Amino acid sequence: xxxxxxxxxxxxxxxxxxxxTWLLDDEQxxxxxxxxxxxxxxxxxxxxxxxxxxxxxxxxxxxxxxxxKLFITTKxxxxxxSYDAVTQSIHESLAKLGLExxxxxxxxxxxxxxxxxxxxxxxxxxKEVWKAMEDAYRTGKVKAIGLSNFLKDDIENILAGCEIxxxxxxxxxxxxxxxxxxxxxCQKNDILVEAYSPIAHGAILGNTEVKxxxxxxxxxxxxxxxxxxIQLGLVVLPKTAxxxxxxxxxxxxxxxxxxxxxxxxxxxQIQDYGEHSFFPVFGGKLK
Length: 287
What we know:
The chain is an alpha/beta fold. It has ten helices and ten strands. The protein has helices at residues 26-39, 53-62, 83-97, 123-139, 152-161, 180-188, 208-217, 221-231, 243-249, 258-265; strands spanning 5-7, 13-15, 19-20, 43-45, 71-76, 104-107, 145-148, 168-172, 192-196, 235-237. The strands form two sheets. An eight-stranded parallel β-sheet has the order 3-4-5-6-7-8-9-10. The chain has a two-stranded antiparallel sheet with strand order 1-2. Helix 5 (152-161) links the parallel strand 7 (145-148) and strand 8. It is globular and about 50 Å long.
């Protein structure tokens, strides 16, 4: 699995499987990245909002694999909505990571988290943010640029005024919550879709229908969920600090049948993500 890649619209190859680092502190993230690299992972995903870029950067320097063989993603804070704020944030991310360049830089959200999916859409602000992203791309500070949590009209807003098209949209996409229309729209516009929380932050693990399909293939529910997203043409970014889970998440050498893919596409939607339901991406609201 580690050698399988998708190609971005600018020709850069991105590993289909990456390691998510959300909710890990610097020390945990550093150890997780070192463990993942030792197992064969080459794609790591962090963000300013995760507050662990320094830990990820430390691991990159100490993991024993050359920098150019790793693919590192980070995200501009959702609250940075001006050209200057984004330019400064890129500088800060490079400094915290201790890197000369970032492989993929994405806008974490079209709106600040406290206003996520509310009426104010920040269309004009996001165009300004995108200009700063384009300029960072032109200077070589970042090798690819993209979006996260952007809906169809958010993306159309960027496409209408950009000089360099977004290469990625990272979204919540998993069995029982798959935004197929948004995925199709992105793919028609040469925007690769990345799936965060591809195992539904664990909320899918108790689904008996999904478990029965996993049993049929002799795999875990987690493995089935990851394979499902990959067969939809998505990058998967399972987050874990457990080396055993990292290893299992990479064992995806099976193919889900078309009939089972249809069943999984139509699985009953998760309404409750447990203790993390308060996060905006899971339908909650931050005060």
